[in-house]
Amino acid sequence: NAGVTQTPKFQVLKTGQSMTLQCAQDMNHNSMYWYRQDPGMGLRLIYYSASEGTTDKGEVPNGYNVSRLNKREFSLRLESAAPSQTSVYFCASSENDGTSTDTQYFGPGTRLTVL
Amino acid sequence: TQLLEQSPQFLSIQEGENLTVYCNSSSVFSSLQWYRQEPGEGPVLLVTVVTGGEVKKLKRLTFQFGDARKDSSLHITAAQPGDTGLYLCAGDKDSNYQLIWGAGTKLIIKP
Fold first, then answer.
1. Distance between the two ends of chain B, CA-based, in angstroms?
2. A96 touches B: beta carbon within 8 Å
């Protein structure tokens, strides 16, 4: 099993350009998440999808949109990239069986630089 | 304001030494998790603690959840270079899918 896969691994954008980050999981998990990680700030939740067909805003959703394409795939779109969006982006998934001990499984990350 | 404060932010020690890192909050959590992240990779779960006062051991790593479920510690005995990484704690506050993450402790174990 590949677990959680993300593409691309690296990306450089100019201010104002758009792009979509792709994420897929093969663990039949119900929930999927997009985080950004910045130095000294830990992981911050951008958007999450509790189950197929639903999406909700996290802590820092401004400037981003998401699509839960099916149970496997959850994409993150930057419509007009800004230098403040330079970060490492992680996708994660979890079974979400209703308990409080849900484990999140992370992809390898996408390193995005906006010039 | 970080809801989960991790300390120290950075720790560099020699192989064989013992160490403890902390994850503190003024809020109560229903559970708390510790993840380890290596450079260029995503975090990987080490342990989940659920009950106040709970102690879990994973080989040389000992995790403790505070009695009031507001804080946690990770103790490593006889640290090895393979323990190097960023240690993150994450708390489940309201069970609404949103974990609260600490900023992490960057640990370097020198051979």
1. 36
2. yes
Chain B contact for A88 (CB, 8 A cutoff):
no
Residue of A41, A43, A89 to mutate, testing the B interface (most B Cβ within 10 Å of its Cβ):
A43
- What are B's interface residues with A at a Cβ cutoff of 8 A? 2, 4, 9, 30-31, 33, 40-45, 48, 50, 88, 90, 92, 95, 97-99, 101-104
Beta partners for residue A22, in sequence order? A7
Each residue's pLDDT expressed in tens, for chain A with a length of 115 residues = 679 999 999 999 999 999 999 999 999 999 999 999 998 788 999 999 988 889 999 989 999 999 998 999 999 999 999 999 999 999 999 987 666 568 899 999 999 999 9
First to last CA, chain A: 36
Q: Which helix (H) or strand (E) element contains residue B56? A: strand B55-58
Output helix, strand, coil percentages for chain B, rounded to the nearest 5.
Answer: 5, 55, 45
